[in-house]
Write a structure and sequence with these properties.
This protein is an alpha+beta fold. The chain has helices at residues 2-7, 36-44, 49-66, 83-95, 101-104, 132-138, 142-156, 185-189, 219-235; strands at 12-17, 20-24, 31-34, 76-82, 108-110, 115-123, 126-129, 161-165, 168-172, 201-207, 210-215, 244-248, 251-254. 25% of the residues are buried.
């Protein structure tokens, strides 16, 4: 609380509920900051406390300042999450007594039954999920979000690299949006990955910054990425899912092993 007050002089800052802070910058509308992810990150890595606090204070300051400026369409990006994350965030809003949960709910669309696509503005200190209110102010329609966000993602991420290990690959692209690379069709249909694996392309996204690839006909490779995915999912600060996904019909769907 003290760090927030020092970073936002003149703002009214109150604790609304456990892991829920309300911030009203001078002359602006009240905003909510939910600390669930930070708490989970701290539980997994207590030694990162200073970094966690710095990240959240930075995000709060940037959010407060961004109210006065319009959405930057060039920085709208897609964020892949598992459906459980979305359901838990919506339940948390209702449990905290939010008067209008839908007003704060992030804009999203189903991807494959297991995963969902959320839309956010990429910022210097993190991301801010878009709401219907933000879209309305920016004059953006939901129907145009996917194409715009995927185009922006390709332009914003650093160079994509594939690191080979025993016939499998780890794909890196800066550490923030590796899971979202599932939406870049050119990455999976060209000469980048598909010819290098046996059978269909199978991926694991156990955390937002981990993207593993193997072939559906490579039993050893599948076992390797599955085992690593389970380990990472159990330990990562920004865990997603240990589920494997296979690319079929132009998209990734849950992989059953056949």
């Amino acid at each position: 609380m003290e760090r927030l007050r020092k970073a936002l002089p003149g703002a009214t800052i109150t604790i609304a509920a456990p892991l829920h802070v309300r911030i009203r910058p001078a002359g602006q509308e009240e905003q909510s900051a939910f600390l669930d992810n930070g708490w989970n990150r701290y539980q997994r890595a207590p030694e990162e406390l200073e970094d966690i606090l710095e990240d959240y204070v930075g995000n709060a300051v940037e959010s407060a300042r961004s109210v006065e400026r319009p959405l930057d369409r060039r920085r709208v990006v897609p964020v892949i999450k598992d459906r459980a994350w979305l359901e838990e965030s919506q339940q948390a809003l209702r449990a905290r007594g939010t008067k209008d949960p839908s007003r704060l709910a992030p804009v999203h669309e189903d991807y494959n039954g297991e995963l969902t696509i959320l839309y956010a503005e990429d910022r210097e200190k993190g991301i801010a999920y878009l709401t219907d209110e933000v879209l309305a102010k920016a004059g953006l329609k939901r129907a145009e979000l996917r194409a715009l966000a995927v185009k922006n993602l390709a332009a914003l991420i650093p160079a994509i690299e594939a690191h080979e290990l025993q016939g499998t690959f780890m794909i890196t692209a800066g550490g923030d949006y590796e899971a979202s690379l599932l939406l870049l069709d050119d990455l999976w249909t060209g000469q980048y990955v598909a010819p290098k694996v046996k059978g269909e392309v199978v991926v694991a996204i156990p955390a937002r910054d981990i993207l593993l690839v193997a072939g559906s006909e490579d039993a050893a490779g599948l076992s390797l990425i599955q085992g690593y995915a389970r380990k990472v999912h159990a330990e990562a600060s920004y865990a997603l899912t240990p589920q494997l996904f296979v690319r079929r019909g132009g998209k990734f769907v849950p992989f059953s092993g056949r």
